[in-house]
Amino acid sequence: MEKNQSERGEIRIVKGDTTIAKIGSSPIIIGREQLEPIMTEKLKAASISREHIRITPRDGRLYIEDFKPSKNGTWLIRDGQAIEITGKKEETELLLSDEIILAKAVTLKLRTD
User: What is the rounded CA–CA span in Å between residue 4 and residue 28?
Assistant: First the structure.
């Protein structure tokens, strides 16, 4: 069983070694503005929505949703299985071990300090 958020310390959304965002107590939105500066392929960056995903911390857990929904999709990779969350009306619980794929263009991970 994974630790709850308060036991994990700071959580960051990363691409490789680059921190994209830090998760605090408020929801965060991640999209093209945060990712474009670190992406070498500008065409792939353009496929990411301006506001692609929202991550919400609540009750010691994290939840993700495809925001608005995005045009090019959002998936989680969990235990080797792809879970599409594009267009879902409800939030999906996000685990520390999940990978987040935006528009089949970029993969993000969660890291704790």
Answer: 18
**Residue 63 token pair:** 């939840």
Residue 80: partners with Cβ closer than 8 Å, 6 or more residues away: none
Q: Whole-model pTM?
A: 0.85
Look at strands 74-78 and 99-102 and give their pairing: antiparallel
- What confidence tens digit (pLDDT) does each residue in 4-26 have? 444 556 789 998 889 999 999 99
Let me know: does 44 contact 103? Beta carbons within 8 Å.
yes
Among 27-31, 38-42, 96-100, the range scoring the smallest mean pLDDT is 38-42
What are the tokens at 34?
A: 């945060």
Q: Are 28 and 57 in contact (CB under 8 A)?
A: no
Cβ atoms within 10 Å of 67's Cβ, excluding its own: 17
Strand partners, 84: 75
Instruction: Look up residue 72 and give its two tokens.
Output: 């090019």
Domains of the chain: 5-112 (2.60.200.20)
